[in-house]
Design goal:
Order of helices and strands: HHHEEEHHH
Strand content: 5-15%
Strand order of the largest sheet: 1-2-3
Number of strands: 3
Shape: extended
Number of helices: 6
Length: about 180
């Protein structure tokens, strides 16, 4: 109906689109510069402005205020673009093409290199673990059920891994049954 106020469902949908746009731009910057690293590459006053804008955006989301989410979402996109521009002008080094990063739910940054040459991983002053692809392959080899699940369900993603309680119990024995 023309001129009708937006429904709550419509507001949720509109807000989700804005949040997704801001999140996507943040992921693009993390992929280019490293997780959480972009504000470290620019003058401190711009980093402070970025963090202040990020707080305003998050507050608008928590308040469930579509007008403010839109206003601060647009400002966040401009802020990411400005920091990206400043980092490029300062000749900041983007991530090497042979290094990938992700962040755990606990906030730990994991750097992945394609070779065992993990000493060349660029932490850029951040606390991070460094893994080589062959180390990840060793973890998969030690847990063949993961590979079997990927074979059984092509395209499936491993989203959680829990230890087998039976295996943990078997490991907690006294070794009394081993003859010496």
């Amino acid at each position: 109906m023309k001129g009708a106020p937006p429904t709550r469902h419509g507001q949720i949908s509109d807000m989700q689109v804005i949040i997704n746009c801001v999140d996507q731009r943040g992921r693009e910057m993390d992929e280019r510069w490293g997780i959480g690293r972009l504000p470290m590459l620019v003058p401190i006053e711009w980093a402070e402005r970025f963090h202040a804008q990020h707080k305003l955006f998050n507050a608008a989301v928590w308040e469930f205020n579509l007008k403010l989410v839109r206003q601060h979402g647009e400002a966040m996109l401009r802020a990411y673009d400005k920091l990206d521009q400043l980092a490029r002008e300062a000749k900041g080094e983007p991530l090497p093409v042979d290094q990938w990063e992700f962040e755990t739910e606990q906030g730990l940054v994991i750097l992945v290199r394609d070779l065992r040459d993990t000493g060349r991983a660029q932490r850029h002053g951040r606390s991070a673990q460094v893994w080589a692809l062959d180390e990840i392959a060793n973890v998969i080899r030690c847990h063949p059920i993961l590979a079997a699940a990927k074979d059984a369900f092509p395209g499936a993603q491993v989203v959680s891994v829990r230890p087998n309680k039976t295996t943990l119990q078997e490991l907690d024995d006294e070794l009394s049954d081993i003859p010496f």
